[in-house]
Design goal:
Elements (H helix, E strand, L loop, with lengths): L4 E4 L9 H10 L4 E7 L11 H8 L5 E7 L7 H7 L3 E5 L6 H10 L3 E6 L17 E5 L14 H15 L4 E5 L7 H7 L3 E4 L1 H4 L3 H20 L2
Parallel strand pairs: 1-8, 2-3, 3-4, 4-5, 5-6, 6-7, 7-8
Helix pairs in contact: 2-3, 6-8
The protein binds D-xylitol-5-phosphate and zinc ion.
D-xylitol-5-phosphate binds next to strand 2 and strand 8.
């Protein structure tokens, strides 16, 4: 059975309290931390980059799930590795040579992910599906937190799971944007196993929010086991 992983997105954190909030996530037993890097070019907004990642790397053992929303990320992969990324995910739409970008990430010894915007079809994955560790399906248009989940993502997740099974690709399917405790079960049932959430984790009581996700994950495992 696929391991379910929660990846809290610090984009929704209170940056004045960033260290404290990351510690809470870590103490709650979460494994991943989702780090949204935006360049003001591939997406309109600018978030944060290397100095922030370096600072938190020195104090955290979480798996840094680094989502690069930047144009031609191949230019800066070494920098993100050196800053402490464990997984680097790039956007298929932002790479002129996607296959080369993914091989470079793998050669550096990191896990490689490829991301697709809601409007980008799955066949964009064909050149790399057998070499990536993870596919990140955006369930909102990237660039900002707090948006509503796009329902057609569910079918896209199912199609991707089927495509992976057919081609023998062993991948995690990560979904990012507009996920809350109330709709996460749909995302899991569709075949995703890595869940990104910013707003629904960092807004309000972080520990309580994580507990609610863990409870959903437990329900999912129970449901799958009893089948
Ligand atoms: C959007 C980012 C997401 C975002 C998710 O561009 O990639 O990771 O932070 O945030 P919520 O959970 O608030 O939709
Ligand atoms: Zn993200």
């Amino acid at each position: 059975m696929m391991e379910l992983i929660l990846s809290p997105s610090i984009l929704a954190a209170d940056f004045f309290e960033l260290g404290k909030q990351i510690k809470m996530v870590e103490e709650a037993g979460v494994k991943y931390l989702h780090i949204d890097v935006m360049d003001g070019n591939y997406v309109k907004n600018i978030s944060f980059g290397l100095p922030v990642i370096k600072s938190i790397r020195s104090r955290s053992n979480l798996v840094f799930d680094t989502h690069l929303m930047v144009v031609e990320p191949i230019r800066m992969l070494e920098d993100y590795r050196d800053a402490g990324a464990d997984i680097i995910t790039v956007h298929a739409e932002a790479c002129s040579d996607l296959a080369a970008t993914i091989s470079r990430i793998k050669e550096m010894g990191l896990k490689a992910g490829v991301s697709l915007n809601p409007g980008t079809p799955l066949d964009k994955l064909d050149p790399v599906l057998n070499s990536v560790d993870m596919v990140l399906l955006m369930s909102v248009v990237p660039g900002a937190g707090g948006q509503a989940f796009i329902p057609s993502t569910l079918q896209k997740i199912r199609d991707l799971r089927e495509k992976a099974e057919k081609t023998g690709a062993v991948i995690d399917i990560e979904v990012d944007g507009g996920i809350y405790v109330d709709n996460v079960m749909d995302v899991l049932m569709a075949g995703a196993n890595v869940i990104v959430s910013g707003t629904s984790i960092f807004h309000g009581d972080i520990l309580e929010n994580i507990r609610k996700y863990n409870e959903k994950f437990r329900q999912y495992y129970e449901m799958v086991q009893s089948k």
